[in-house]
Structures are given as C-alpha cells and as structure tokens.
Write a structure and sequence with these properties.
four-stranded mixed β-sheet; 1 helix; 15% helix; binds zinc ion; single chain
Length: 94
C-alpha cells in the first residue's frame, strides 16, 4: 500500500515539471517568413510563426503567435495576424 502511494507522487512530480516545455521556448528565426503570402486573405508579410509553450521575456510578439502549451501532431505552425487563418507551413513552401 505504501509503495503505491509513493509511486503516484513521483508521477505527479514529473507531470508538473516545467523542463519538458523548455525546448519550445526558443523561437527560431526564419527570414523567409515575411515574404510568405496568406492563402486566405492573400496578403504578404502578415503570417506569424506559432510557438508552442510558454513565451520567454525576449519573445518576439511581432514575429510569432503563442499557440499554447499543448503539443500535438499536425498542429498549425503559421497564423495570419490579419484574417486569423492558421495552417501548416509545409503546404506553403512549394
Ligand atoms: Zn490572412
């Protein structure tokens, strides 16, 4: 009985650890971003990269949008600051 309680406490400690988010906190600058055109409103230079995780003090809110802390597969990594469109960058690059 005591053994079960101990292992549950250990599991909770892992889940609330902020360390797992830290790799998403450093935005990588991509110079080509302002030259992309939004597929919905067809405006150039309005697309922002979406960063998942907690934004740091030096977070660039002009260049990036915050997508939240939940990391899932196939989440949009681009967002239009004009019309609100969001989608995957890979579909725009070709
Ligand atoms: Zn747009």
């Amino acid at each position: 009985m005591l053994k079960v309680v101990h292992s549950t406490a250990k599991e909770n400690q892992f889940l609330v650890s902020p360390i797992s988010y830290s790799i998403f906190m450093t935005p990588r600058r991509r110079p080509a971003l302002p030259t992309l055109t939004c597929p919905k409103c067809l405006q150039e230079g309005v697309l922002q990269g979406i960063i998942y995780g907690m934004p740091g003090d030096d977070f660039d809110f002009e260049m990036y949008a915050v997508g939240g802390c939940l990391i899932e597969e196939n989440q949009p990594d681009l967002r239009c600051r004009d019309c609100g469109w969001s989608g995957l960058r890979v579909f725009l690059d070709d």
